[in-house]
Design brief:
By secondary structure, the protein is mainly alpha-helical. The protein is about 80% helix and about 0% strand. The protein is built from three helices and no strands.
Length: about 160
């Protein structure tokens, strides 16, 4: 009996495969269309960003390099703070908060991956069920229901 179940699952998988391939091809085509649509817009945005950088950011960077004296002192202070953290001179409260943040992000990532996998499995199961339902109960296989109306007797007959 388990052999029939396995062959049924294999048969269902073989029947669903063409639909999955069609869905993949449709997704590839949609991605190509989006790329052809968004490509020129991305090039325009990159050009605008280059122009903005040249007119606004580059002059400020040059001024900042010129004023590097105070920045050098700031960099030295920050590197001293980093060394303190490495030596364990950071507060336990700050350390616990960082660990909690990391755990929360990992837990959220696992939840998202599990939810996506569950959605894919549920969607595949639904598609297989709809296909199987259509195969086991096709409309042409159904017998018409019997008539429920009683014919009226013709005139001149008793009955």
């Amino acid at each position: 009996m388990s052999h029939n179940g396995k062959s049924g699952v294999r048969y269902a998988a073989d029947m669903v495969t063409p639909y999955a391939v069609t869905a993949k091809d449709s997704a590839v085509q949609a991605a190509q269309q989006a790329g052809s649509y968004l490509g020129p817009k991305a090039r325009q945005a990159a050009l605008r960003a280059r122009v903005k950088y040249a007119t606004q950011v580059a002059p400020r960077v040059e001024k900042a390099v010129a004023a590097a004296g105070p920045a050098k002192d700031e960099a030295a202070a920050r590197s001293q703070a980093a060394l303190s953290a490495l030596r364990g001179e950071i507060s336990p409260r700050e350390l616990r908060a960082a660990v909690r943040r990391g755990r929360r992000r990992a837990r959220t990532g696992r939840l998202v991956r599990r939810t996506a996998l569950l959605g894919l499995v549920a969607g595949g199961t639904f598609v297989a069920w709809k296909w199987w339902s259509g195969q086991t109960n096709p409309d042409w296989l159904m017998e018409p229901s019997p008539a429920t109306e009683v014919p009226e007797p013709e005139e001149g007959t008793l009955g």
